[in-house]
Amino acid sequence: GNSVTQMEGPVTLSEEAFLTINCTYTATGYPSLFWYVQYPGEGLQLLLKATKADDKGSNKGFEATYRKETTSFHLEKGSVQVSDSAVYFCALRSTGTASKLTFGTGTRLQVTL
Amino acid sequence: DTGVSQDPRHKITKRGQNVTFRCDPISEHNRLYWYRQTLGQGPEFLTYFQNEAQLEKSRLLSDRFSAERPKGSFSTLEIQRTEQGDSAMYLCASSLAPPSSYNEQFFGPGTRLTVL
Fold this sequence. Notes:
The structure holds two protein chains of two kinds.
Chain A lengths: L2 E4 L4 E4 L4 E3 L1 E4 L5 E7 L5 E7 L5 E4 L2 E4 L9 E3 L8 E8 L7 E3 L3 E6 L1
Parallel strand pairs in A: 2-12
Antiparallel strand pairs in A: 1-4, 3-9, 5-6, 5-10, 7-8, 8-9, 10-11, 10-12
Chain B lengths: L4 E3 L2 E4 L5 E6 L6 E7 L6 E7 L2 E5 L7 E4 L6 E5 L8 E8 L10 E2 L3 E5 L1
Parallel strand pairs in B: 2-11
Antiparallel strand pairs in B: 1-3, 3-8, 4-5, 4-9, 5-6, 7-8, 9-10, 9-11
């Protein structure tokens, strides 16, 4: 079946540091890939997506590239801010009719001054 | 607010009681999904509807769980005879159905269930 593996957290960084959160997946077919973010006390929000190999999703300074050869979708940001502190979830959407999402376990990011 | 809403936001109940949660999707979305998220884990798919039809149920959805979307708008998720293992955040999401290219799922804030 489909699965998503994320690096374990928490990840603690100083403001303006470079961020990488690793994500790899297992899936049949050609899934779409997503990063969702959950800020404290809030619901899941879509951060970025990529629907085919070599696509790069980007939003709010975050980027991730769909790498089919390594089945990866790593999240990066060049300079994190305190306001980026949240839990980040990598997810894939299967190609079946349900379009259901399969999530990783989430990675908590804590950014300090 | 035109996003996905869920009610209640928190529910505390005693083991063996029945509980019902409600989800109101984004109005033009014909798909509605339920997920469950336990502490330290990512959300797991439970079931989904397209309009009023329930098209798939996960094996996670035991016989004590039932979901409805009677008019193709809001949905309810009922858990009968709750168990402590049912304690979790229950998330609702809505989207447009394929072949629309705008079919990202938008999530509600969730209902946190605590079973004592």
